Amino acid sequence: MGTAAVGGPVTPLGAGGSAPGDRGVSLGDTGRTGGPHPVVLGATGLLGGTFDPIHVGHLMIAEEVRETLGLERVLFVPAGIPPHKPDRPITPAPHRVAMIELAIAGNPAFELSRLEVDRAGPSYAVDTLELLASDVRARGGEPDLTFIVSAEAFVELPTWRDPARLLSLCRMAVVPRAGRGSPGAAWLDAHIPGSHERVIFLDGPNLDLSATRIRRRVAAGRSIRYLVPDAVIAYIADHALYRTEPGRTDRP
Question: Whole-angstrom Cα distance, residue 16 to residue 136?
């Protein structure tokens, strides 16, 4: 899915839900100072990536965006063939899917989507959003989709396939990456004119954690306790994953 993948079997997104932007959240809204936002029925977040492996940073991001924006659920969408990583070794999809299922099992608002791992060819975000939006409309609803992405990935948005179309299908929730700032309205208008009302910048969580670091720790025989859920640690050990890290430099 572009730089941040999303997808899974086209699962029902609900018959209700408001159109993107109807909740009045716009550029500059970076979180709530009070309690969580009331849940909006049908509001769905999409968090994509290779999830190789899924780690607590992914889970914290999903929960923060869900609570801040009042999402009813968040779909974890592992990429099948990430177009931005064509030459990098990636753990086979069945392992990545299994680790996601273990990691999200305790949160009823989190769901796995297999749309991209079950689809042939590269995983482009705009194609996945088109399919999900069409599924909602086929069920008589109006799509309310929020695409969750890191600030690091967001600055690559102009290089994605049809970014203007992508932003017409969803709002984007941009979460910070430790040590990296987020672009502002001027940057958005310069690169994708008129898009800043479709983007929400959150002020957290601000974590310096990557799948690359976790794989390297496993390869070095070091503990990854508290970096990934215990069930995922057990899965990695049981299947002897990440024992070597041959030139892998991808982060998510």
Answer: 9
How many domains does the structure of the chain reveal?
A: 1
Q: What is the pLDDT of residues 71-118, one digit of tens each?
A: 999 999 999 887 766 667 899 999 999 999 999 999 999 999 999 999
Whether 32 maps to a domain, the answer reads no
Cα gap 103→105, rounded to integer Å: 6
CA distance readout (Å), 218 to 210, 224, 241, 243: 13, 7, 8, 6
Structural domain includes residue 222: no
Show the tokens assigned to 212. Answer: 């690359």
65 compared with 187, residue with greater pLDDT: 65
pLDDT tens per residue across span 124-144: 999 999 999 999 999 999 999
3-class DSSP state of 174: strand
| Domain around 148 | 40-211
Let me know if residue 33 belongs to a domain: no
Checking DSSP bridges between strand 71-78 and strand 110-112, what pairing results, if any? parallel
Residue from 107, 128, 102 nearest 116 by CA:
128
The one-letter amino acid code at 182 reads S
The candidate with the shortest Cα–Cα distance to 179, out of 135, 156, 210, is 210
> Domain containing 94 — which CATH number?
3.40.50.620
The number of residues in the chain equals 252
